[in-house]
Amino acid sequence: MPGTLEGRSLLGLATAEPGARSFQAVDARSGEPLEPPFHAAGSADLERAVTMAERAFPAYAALDDAERSAFLRTAASTLEARGDAIVARADRETALGVARLTGELGRTANQLRLFATLVDEGRWRDVRIDRADPEREPAPRPDVRSLRRPLGPVAVFGASNFPLAFSVAGGDTASALAVGCPVVAKAHPAHPGTSELVGRALRSAARDTGMPDGTFSLLFDDGHELGQALVRHPAIRAVGFTGSRAGGQALVHLAAERPEPIPVFAEMSSVNPVFVLPGAARERGRAIADALLASFTLGVGQFCTNPGLVLVPAGGAGDALRDRLVEGARRSEAQVMLTAGIHRAFQGGLERLAELGARRLADGRGGTAATAASAAVWEVGVDELVARPGLAQEVFGPSTVLVRYRELEELVAFARAMEGQLTASLFGEADEWEGAQPLAAVLERKVGRLIVEGVPTGVEVCRAMVHGGPYPATSDGRSTSVGARAMERFTRLVAYQNVPATLLPPPLR
Question: With 90 as the cut, is the pLDDT of residue 19 above it?
Fold first, then answer.
């Protein structure tokens, strides 16, 4: 039955035998263990999954575009058909709520369909042809043709905060499969039941569309050893990861230490600063405060695009914005965080802000659950922020720091000093944009997405989107994990010089 859980890893079209060690998911709201136990994959399971992916790679990469896009579309439809069971289990494991998870399931399915459309169009290959010119002087020009080719098997690590859109069938998996790379996914231990249901939907789609055995596998483990071994395996050619800075850095270092290093595309850490210019604070301060409150408390603040810093002018207009935000935060209800570990890290982040001298302005209403978190609003001066960079580090949860400034030059100076970010947002009036040009010029070098008149939460899945940014927002600021360009991560460029048509890939003939 599609909704029945077995707690065993998926090795291509087969299911692994029960292992010697197991772990259980917990109900995020009550902390009670959930059935069934999940058997941790052993070294033999990992070896089998990766070997199958390596063997499947030539046949899968050589499929017609129509066959791969049919697989992706079937995967999307299968997820939707099994959506009720997937959402119900995900809600128990994450406490994110049925409405949010239903929307995330839709996003995941639509993302798969977007990549299917991109496969059909073929432009992702970036085909370029320079025809021979034997009469050119002083030397003849050879025939040179190039395109993007898939790298090979890709390891994908499921994210804790997006159990669907950034996990087993999320953007990393979808974009890798789209270009012809088999995927070996490691399920996040916080939502293994959700991961199994999604993984079995992908496996069913692979079987129904005749994909080579080994095109997709799913491994379970609640520790770090399996993931480390996966990154070290010589058949793995790239890694997709969304999570903490420490976790992403560890994978990057492992990949770099291999005899043949491989790319790791890790989304890691961002505070997504919001810059409120004086005119905007004066004219629309209350509305901006309301938007910020909704943004930094959305999903208990467990978004990579959570606005962790808000730069607000000193003076009456800024005070009014601050007071509105504080008032809203105090009325907000506590919500359950994803895991006990994330809750502990959030509390540690709040303690760090207090130790560094941030002034706590507001707390939301308390909750009864052990892992419930309340909104927290802090205030510092921009000079304090520059002097104590720790104030600008990410706190993963419903917390934001108001940074008070007096001159626009202070904003530019802070932007020059800040770390790389996924986003930066600007709120201003029409007559302020010319004066904001120096700030915008700095920000475009520091972020992957510059937003005007909007909060950073909400990442549109579209062709133009860039969900990336300079380090430490990601390990490779040239890439994106959302949108059409995500496919480029799992490809490499190959040129063919004077190659006869029979030896050329079909798109170059």
Answer: no
Residues ≥6 apart with Cβ < 8 Å to 372: 334, 335, 336, 337, 366
Interaxial angle between packed helices 83-94 and 65-81, expressed in degrees from 0 to 180 and rounded to the nearest 10: 70
CB 107 within 8 A of CB 471: no
Does residue 33 have a cis bond before it (omega within 30 degrees)? no
Q: Which residue in 306, 307, 272 sits closest to 469, CA to CA? A: 272
Active site (annotated) includes residue 267? yes
- Is 304 a residue of the active site? yes
Instruction: For residue 306, name the pLDDT band (cuts at 50, 70, 90).
Output: very high
CB 250 within 8 A of CB 266: no
The SS3 assignment for 443 reads helix
Note the pTM of the prediction, 2 decimals.
0.96
Of 451, 447, 490, the C-alpha closest to 471 is 447
Identify residue 34 by its one-letter amino acid code: L
Residue of 181, 196, 304, 394 marked catalytic: 304
Active-site residue (options: 54, 93, 104, 267)? 267
Longest Cα–Cα distance in the chain = 81
Structural contact between residues 108 and 461, judged by C-beta atoms closer than 8 angstroms? no
What is the pLDDT at residue 1?
61
Strand ranges (E), 154-304: 154-157, 183-186, 216-219, 238-242, 264-267, 274-276
